[in-house]
Amino acid sequence: MRIQISHITTYRYDRSPKNVAQILRLTPRNHDGQYVVNWMIDVSQDAQLHRHDDAFGNLAHSFTLEGPFDALTVAVEGVVETQDLHGLVRGAVERFPPSLFLRDSTMTTPDAAIIEFTQQAKSRAGAKAGSLDVLHQLVRDLNREITFDTDPTNVGTTAIEAFALRRGVCQDLTHIFIGAARHLGIPARYVSGYFHRSDGVIEQEAGHAWVEAYVEDLGWVGFDPTNGVSTTDAHVRVAVGLDYLSAAPVRGTRSGGAGEQLHVAVVVAQAQQQIQT
Question: What is the dihedral of CA 245, 210, 52, 40, to 10 degrees?
Fold first, then answer.
């Protein structure tokens, strides 16, 4: 699939900040099944972008800005060619052994309720089920159990909090899945990126998130609990980490200023060139 992506993040301030520093994980890499045709980052203010690889091998850019300014826009746009590898992740940058991704974090640590849910999924998968079968059962059960809802959670919501609500967004379902998989002794990591919807909706409020779990004899396999599927050519993979905090598309700080308003606009569409052919 040939996917066109536009992701615009706009900050407005009632009172100008003294300075702003940000790190952007907004640029996808090439790997098996994913080829970046073109990609551009634009910052509305006069900022110098510094490109580097972060600890997890994600392609990152950082910048600092001195005020005054009353608005700041970070825009990315590009085209990515994808192929359906049935969830398998091959040829990606790997900085750490899979065992690192058994490490719990505040965002993903399960409680008794998540552990019980996980054990029930394992039981439903069957006594002879391997790790892959259990993970497929888990993604189906989690998709059925948690209602997608943008209202009750935020970027600081933990897996425990979201599971108690039985509601949340892709970040929340991903954190719950990661905590469940790690409880089973299966390495799992957070993935941020984009998802091309099949229902014709191209305008989205944010990017997407899903999980990669390490399965013996297969390697890393992608699971999307929000959609109840393994990853396909509809997924554009951008960054990985232990949880949202280490794979967030945009993270930053500011000094001074007041009255910050944030607006995010994401468009994920089939590229026009492919439609015409």
Answer: -120
**For residue 125, what is the enclosing H or E element?**
helix 112-125
DSSP string, 157-221: --HHHHHHHTEE-HHHHHHHHHHHHHHTT--EEEEEEEE--TTS--EESS-EEEEEEEETTTEEE
pLDDT at 273 over 80: no
Predicted TM-score (pTM) of this structure: 0.95
Q: Look at residue 233 and give its three-state secondary structure.
A: coil
Coil, helix or strand at residue 86 = coil
- Tell me the Ramachandran region of residue 86: left when phi exceeds 0, alpha when psi lies from -120 to 50, beta otherwise: left
The residues spanned by each domain of the chain are 2-82+250-276, 98-247
- 238-261: pLDDT as tens digits: 999 999 999 999 999 999 988 899
DSSP character at residue 88:
B
The residue written with tokens 């000094």 in the block is 255
Torsion-angle region of 154 (φ positive above 0: left; ψ -120 to 50: alpha; else: beta): beta
Structure tokens at 52: 């580097």
Q: Is the pLDDT assigned to residue 156 strictly greater than 70?
A: yes
Angle between helices 112-125 and 131-145 (to 10 degrees): 120
Query: φ, ψ for residue 138 (rounded to 5)?
Result: -65, -40
Q: What digits encode the pLDDT tens for the residues 48-78? A: 999 999 999 999 999 999 989 999 999 999 9
CATH architecture of 98-247: Roll (3.10)
What pLDDT score was predicted for residue 127? 86
Q: Contact at 8 Å (CB) between 203 and 263?
A: no
pLDDT tens for each residue of 82-132? 999 999 999 999 999 999 999 999 999 999 999 999 999 999 999 889 999
Class of domain 2-82+250-276: mainly beta
